[in-house]
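Can you give me the bound-state structure? Components:
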Amino acid sequence: MAKKTYDLLFKLLLIGDSGVGKTCILFRFSDDAFTSTFISTIGIDFKIKTVELRGKKIKLQIWDTAGQERFHTITTSYYRGAMGIMLVYDITNEKSFENIVKWLRNIDEHANEDVEKMILGNKCDMDEKRIVSKDRGESIAREHGIRFMETSAKANVNIEKAFCELAEAILDKTSGREPAENTERVAFDRRGAGQEKQASYKNCCST
Amino acid sequence: MSIYKQRLKEFEEALSEEELDFEKFRKLCFNGIPDTNGYRALCWKLLLGYLSPKRSSWSETLGQKRKLYSQFVNEMVVPPGQDKAECVDHPLSEGPDSAWSTFFKDNEFLLQIDKDVRRLYPDISFFQQPTEFPCDLVVNSKGERRLHQRVVPSVFSSANVERKGLGMTKINLITKRSVENYEAMDEGQEAHWEVVQRILFIYAKLNPGQGYVQGMNEIIGPIYYIMASDPSAEQRENAEADTFFCFTALMSEIRDFFIKTLDDSEGGIKFMMAKLTNMVKEKAPEIHQKLKEQELYPQYYSFRWLTLLLSQEFSLPDVVRIWDTVFADDNRFDFLIDVCCSMIVSLEDQILNNDFASNVKLLQNYPPTDINLILSKAVELRL
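Here's the bound-state model for the whole set.
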């Protein structure tokens, strides 16, 4: 087996109504690109990106799910293994915001109890079509004690920051009970780095 | 005579017989239908059972069905409060028989259809192009029968309301058009995606137990594409109706894939995935073992492969080629399993050497490949 090119592996999950932009968010984060013409996600998709946080290389394994009700039996089976969940709604779509409560309930039912959650109000570049105010997003997040951010995959607002904050929150939890296999640091082995995009986001996560 | 010409001749002969020898015809299609002469559109109509093998019945069937479909459009694609609405009916009525209540319910699934048809085959421009044969009833209705117009509420909510003096209200509707390519057409015209939207809407109205499920758009896409690219103008003109009936016939066989409550039943999607897993285990035990060790479950890739009949895994020409064979097979969806198994087996070297992440990526983004090799390997595997 090849040497590990990362210190920690975090499994993240993106959920939310259909069409809120989950795939676009993930694409922006993993490939730093945007396209408005994504085919709808059927079942589940997968991307990987390695980031560096507090001197640790963290491999993010991110699962992108289909939003429609029909796929819930398939997608909820992934909740269990997830360490972080991004819950996305669309600020121009009231229904997608109302359903946040439903998605939270889903998390309660299917995910680990200590899973880190974050709510994202996506498409914040489309202010002229906004229906859900930032206040409402903030208050529902506060109510449930969850982080919140407004994002735009299109204008590249807060995408990297969101993933990094979520990863950092997971890191906070895991430090102190790091599995033994990870103590063998391979930080000097940079050969694998070319394959998966390296993120240096000292700017966004330094606060 | 070249092999290709020979094949064309075989199709010509087979299709000109008064009563098709269906077994022979199926075998012919199994090896791929030629891209010319509108053969594929006609053969799919036959293979899916929309047309019967009796040649003389074709024009009557087509005439009847097309007429029936135009009735569906007439009755179902209507603005509310105009046709059947009685005086007691109004938008705030919550009575179950209220045409308005139905209207709002319909709009819920229509919204989902709208999102999905606007992202149908983004790699090709076909679905964004105007059709030469728009539905007159719809495109000349001043927008009232245009389905997508029913589900663009954001236009209204973004209105700026200004009060002026004595309660005069001025409402500025922001009419800025979106910049996306799947734009609605002007009066008198419509794009292919709008036609597909209408078919899916009518299908969902007629099958309320099933409704619209994401992925149906991916099933209907290739069918409509084939019907609407027929060299015969008469066929193209009726592409919408013909697609509807071919799609309905196909859905009657694969509808269980789309119904959540049937996931575990025979014919349901989990059953299909288990079948595929068992086949891989039997034909390529090493791969099976490797994937099992990596905890790379079949849902990660084969859920989509099977539900969408591989339509998202390959380019459109390859998809229609696969469908020729799948539709022509006696046990249609058993062969689909064989094809999926062949896809996995063809990647054996890579799968055995890859780590988990690379394998998921590989299987979720199937590499470009000669589809005929996959198909012939699938035939070998089933033996």
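A couple of observations. The CA atoms of residues 4 and 186 of chain A lie 7 Å apart. Chain A touches chain B through 32 residues (CB under 8 Å).
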